[in-house]
TrEMBL record:
Name of the protein in its database record: F-box/kelch-repeat protein At1g20790
InterPro entries registered for this protein in UniProt: SCF_F-box_component
Region described as Disordered: spans on this chain: 386-432
């Protein structure tokens, strides 16, 4: 774009940024200058990301069926709030969503796949050191768009030395797509919370551990650190009977920790300068049932305060509560059928996916991957179910859901006993 003056570029940015994203992708064919603007102009990327982030956000997740070879694939659109369902093969798993890219695990070929549903671009990435995926504790995706046109994958495994367990990290950058590098954090290994997905915020990936501390991996410095357990987690508000009681995510651009007690809900934001959780906000607990248990989870929507999904014991459906600034309280804004605590916030972008040869994947497997990616794209972007018969399948599923009471889904099936709150404690400290 060297021959184009700055005023012309500004006008071009403004005109193109107002077009639908699917049309903008086609504009790349107009000229080299337009293609460079769309693909490599950081200012244009910032404008585009801001314009579409709030209006096109979705929550995507899968629900394990258990009785078929295909899992249910859900999306919740937020403008307006609607829930749609399709299907996805059992051996295809959604692992993350970050700045317009989705990380998918194709177990059948032992590959990760970085995928942009808007552009259709994808990159297959072999597991690190050809390890089977079940040896990996966690996988994270960090996409730097719109700040930069690159992304990183991070895996966490257990490292055992002299009867001690440590964390072993493997890092792959889109700048060097064929090289997994190994980094170690020598601190006592603590298992991760089930049902709390990783978070990418401030150039770092964050994973919540069962003891309330947070494992952070800085993708710029390529180093891992620990964030200590917050003191407010030990306040005498009483433990809940069942369900997870602590989650991490982002809300209104801030790294946020939520803890649910018998008498209070506590929400705290992270101070990255002092590396501590800031003074938490507390509110009366409105999500527990009469038995003192909670079936649901916080819902992380980037532009909103923390929302909550709560099962209604009468309908067995899930009520979505959002914070209302006018009333300074939470209001029920929608009723949803099923959910998974591993919900991923997706908003479309034109983040580029680097191209690498798939020569070591057979032609039939490449066709299988391409077919599934196209199905995922059509469902997320155009709302077209993956199979025509999925509508009848979803009806059967909802009937089964009503009969069975709607199980709380998570990445490991049902919650392990240690994930539930312990015995009821006398609670009731004063609100801050």
């Amino acid at each position: 774009m060297a021959n184009t003056s700055k005023p012309d570029v500004d006008v071009l940015r403004e005109i193109i940024s107002r077009m639908p994203l699917k049309v903008i992708v086609q504009y790349k064919l107009l000229s080299t200058e337009v293609r460079n603007l769309i693909s490599h102009d950081a200012e244009f990327a910032q404008i585009l990301s801001k314009r579409y982030k709030d209006s096109s956000t979705q929550l995507i997740y899968t629900v394990y069926n258990g009785w078929s070879e295909r899992n249910s694939f859900y999306k919740i659109s937020l403008n307006p709030i609607t829930q749609s369902v399709s299907t996805i093969p059992d051996e295809v798993d959604i692992l993350a969503s970050c700045n317009g890219l989705i990380l998918i695990d194709f177990e059948i070929v032992s590959r990760y796949c970085v995928f942009n549903p808007i552009t259709g671009e994808h990159q297959l990435i072999p597991y690190p050191n050809a390890l089977p995926n079940n040896n990996i504790e966690r996988t994270g995706l960090a996409v730097e768009y719109p700040k930069a046109d690159q992304y990183e994958l991070v895996t966490i495994s257990k490292l055992e030395e002299n009867s001690n367990l440590f964390y072993k990290f493997r890092l792959l950058s889109s700048q060097q797509p064929g090289v997994w590098r190994e980094i170690q954090l020598r601190t006592s290994f603590v298992s991760f919370c089930v049902g709390s997905p990783h978070v990418y915020w401030g150039d770092s990936l964050y994973w919540l551990r069962k003891d309330g501390s947070v494992l952070a991996f800085d993708t710029k410095r390529e180093e891992a650190t620990l964030i200590d357990r917050s003191e407010f987690l030990d306040r005498d508000y009483g433990k809940i009977f069942s369900g997870q009681d602590i989650w991490i995510g982002t809300a209104q651009g801030l790294l946020t920790l939520v803890c649910i007690f018998r008498t209070r809900i506590v929400i705290a934001n992270f101070d990255s300068v002092n590396r501590r959780w800031m003074a938490p906000r507390t509110m009366d607990n409105f999500v527990l049932n009469e038995q003192g248990s909670f079936n649901g989870c916080p819902v992380w929507i980037d532009s909103k305060r923390v929302s909550f999904l709560v099962q209604n014991p009468q309908t067995r459906r899930y009520d979505l509560y959002e914070y209302d600034t006018n009333t300074n309280a939470y209001q029920n804004v929608a009723v949803l059928n099923r959910f998974n605590a591993r919900m991923y916030c997706y908003h479309p972008t034109l983040a580029s996916v680097h191209s690498t040869p798939d020569n070591d994947v057979t032609v039939d497997k490449q066709e299988y991957i391409a077919e599934n990616l196209n199905d995922i794209k059509r469902f997320i972007i155009e709302g077209i179910p993956i199979e025509e018969e999925s509508s009848s399948a979803s009806s059967e599923e909802e009937e089964a859901f009503e009969d069975e009471g709607g199980e709380f889904e998570d990445e490991g099936g049902e919650f392990e006993d240690e994930e539930f709150g312990g015995e009821d404690e006398a609670g009731g400290g004063e609100e801050d």
